[in-house]
């Protein structure tokens, strides 16, 4: 026989007869087979499996009808639900044969409860401890005569002279102190001084002493004034505590006003680290069990969470959490950027593999294995991701199996069932096929609706 199915012309007549006879026998057998299939009545199981129970709205599975047609709200064609099936299976589910599952190497795993501790990795900036920071200013207007301190970053001791200034306003405080000191000492040397007079003199001396400190005189110079019993021409500004100079705003010959900031000094043996935190992490930070600070070239340093709650700015996407860090060697200096690792107390959470979650940008969903080769897409609300595990806050139950390998293939197949994709109704929150959705443009934004009624309700609320 040639390519066209014709018998060779050169074949003997007897051969042609035998070939035609064989073809006739095969044709008869095939006709009998198909005739038998058509004539065989379907079994009760086959009839029951093909029986339509009802019809549903693809976008409103709760709507049922005993007749085919279109949905009253969105106008979409109703889909049949067969015996043994359900609305979700008829609309969203993907069915695969065992061979197809093996071909795409599909794998599943159960959603599991995780009790492990959570870790938050972020960055922070070193700042001085407010309780160990001192501001130095003069209580009178004056001129800088001499500067004794080094520049910014220099270390100073408590009582150390920083700068000397002259002011016409410090003569009175010195005279008041010398008078109060003389009166107090005279009463002390009396054989039996009146108690009330001694108390008044003591109070007067204490007030004069406070006034000298207010104008900027340190204790060493006050002691010198008491020994010499004569006014000093210049006042020495003294460091109020041990630390490093963070700001120095003085120079020889400089004039300054009363109360003007001249120095800012901080003790850096304990510092704060202001760590960046996101709003989603704020709830976790209430149960911090440990905090660690790391920086390049420095060993890890343990920190303690401050009592103050994280502070969030109105226009900022991140907040600041205070960590207190012992810094005896002063290796951490203000302005330094460090790495922060926070460990929080364990709390139960339902988790799945990160490969199981498909993030479209507007929604997140997983595919749940329903058995029998059926896989149902399920919208979920996710929480934090720890390593390769993602927290599921809603949409799944513990023990439900989700697809981990080949989830994106199922997602592509699911979207092909609705090529235009789904959008969310801005009024009722229902998922609607984009091709069938009503659309409303307002102030540069696009809103979608499943029905005219939802669109009208939305428009009415916007105009109120």
Query: What structural class is derived from the secondary structure elements?
Result: alpha+beta
Strand segment tally: 32
Strand order of the largest sheet: 7-16-20-18-17-21
The largest β sheet comes out as: 6 strands, antiparallel, barrel
Rg from Cα: 43 Å
Unreliable runs, pLDDT <50, ≥5 residues?
A: 1-13, 22-40, 43-49
Give the helix proportion (percent range).
Answer: 10-25%
| Basic shape | elongated
Mean pLDDT over all positions: 79
Features:
6-stranded antiparallel beta barrel; disordered N terminus; elongated; alpha+beta; about 475 residues; 4-stranded antiparallel β-sheet; 9 helices
Q: Explain this structure to me?
A:
- The protein has 464 residues and is of the alpha+beta class.
- It is 25% helix and 35% strand.
- The chain has nine helices and 32 strands.
- The radius of gyration is 43 Å and the shape is elongated.
- It starts with 12 loop residues before the first helix and ends with a helix.
């Amino acid at each position: 026989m040639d390519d066209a199915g014709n018998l060779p012309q050169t074949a003997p007549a007897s051969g042609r007869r035998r070939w035609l006879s064989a073809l006739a026998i095969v044709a008869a057998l095939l006709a009998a087979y198909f005739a038998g299939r058509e004539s065989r009545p379907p079994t009760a199981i086959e009839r029951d499996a093909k029986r339509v129970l009802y019809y549903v709205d693809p976008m409103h599975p709760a709507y049922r009808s005993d007749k085919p047609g279109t949905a009253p709200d969105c106008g979409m064609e109703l889909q049949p639900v067969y015996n043994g099936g359900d609305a979700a299976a008829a609309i969203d589910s993907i069915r695969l044969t065992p061979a197809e599952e093996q071909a795409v190497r599909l794998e599943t795993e159960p959603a599991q409860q995780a009790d492990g501790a959570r870790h938050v990795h972020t960055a922070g900036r070193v700042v001085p401890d407010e309780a160990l920071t001192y501001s130095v200013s003069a209580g009178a207007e004056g001129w800088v005569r001499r500067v004794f301190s080094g520049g910014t970053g220099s270390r100073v001791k408590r009582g150390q002279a920083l700068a000397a200034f002259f002011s016409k306003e410090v003569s009175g405080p010195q005279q008041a102190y010398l008078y109060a000191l003389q009166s107090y000492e005279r009463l002390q040397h009396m054989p039996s001084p009146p108690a009330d007079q001694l108390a008044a003199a003591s109070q007067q001396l204490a007030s004069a002493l406070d006034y000298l400190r207010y104008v900027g005189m340190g204790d060493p110079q006050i002691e010198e004034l008491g020994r010499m019993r004569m006014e000093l021409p210049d006042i020495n500004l003294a460091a109020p505590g041990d630390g490093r100079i963070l700001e120095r705003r003085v120079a020889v010959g400089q004039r300054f006003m009363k109360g003007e900031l001249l120095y800012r000094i901080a003790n850096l043996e304990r510092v704060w680290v202001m760590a960046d935190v996101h709003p989603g992490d704020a709830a976790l930070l209430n149960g911090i069990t440990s905090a660690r600070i790391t920086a390049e070239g420095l060993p890890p340093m343990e920190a303690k969470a401050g009592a103050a709650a994280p502070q969030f700015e109105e226009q900022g996407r991140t907040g600041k959490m205070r960590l207190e860090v012992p810094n005896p060697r002063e290796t951490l200096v203000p302005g330094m950027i460090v790495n922060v690792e926070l460990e929080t107390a364990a709390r139960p959470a339902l988790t799945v593999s990160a490969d199981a979650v498909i993030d479209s940008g507007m929604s997140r969903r997983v595919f749940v294995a329903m058995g029998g080769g059926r896989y149902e897409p399920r919208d979920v609300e996710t929480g934090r991701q720890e390593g390769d595990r993602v927290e599921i806050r809603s949409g799944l139950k513990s023990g439900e199996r989700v697809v981990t390998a080949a989830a994106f293939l199922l997602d592509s197949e699911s979207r092909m069932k609705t090529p235009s994709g789904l959008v969310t109704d801005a009024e009722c929150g229902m998922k609607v096929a984009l091709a069938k959705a009503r659309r409303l443009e307002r102030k540069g934004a696009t809103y979608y609706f499943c029905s005219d009624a939802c669109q009208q309700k939305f428009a009415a609320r916007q105009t109120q």
